[in-house]
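Sample entry (64 residues):
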Amino acid sequence: MKSAKFCIAQNTPIMSPVPVLACALAAKADVIVTGDKDLIVLHPWHGIQILNPADALQWLTSST
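Predicted structure, serialized as C-alpha cells:
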C-alpha cells in the first residue's frame, strides 16, 4: 500500500476551490479526496491527484 499525504475536501459544493487547493499545496498533499465535481475536473493540479473517494482508494491500494 502507498504512503501519501491527503487533503480531504467536504462533499458539498464550495464557493471557490481556491482554499482547498491552497491548503493542499501548502501541505504538500499527494491527493485531494472530494466528491466536488468542480475540483475533480482540475485533476491533476500541480502534481496533486484530485480524486473521488472510490478512485482514491483504488489509487492508494494500487501497486507503485
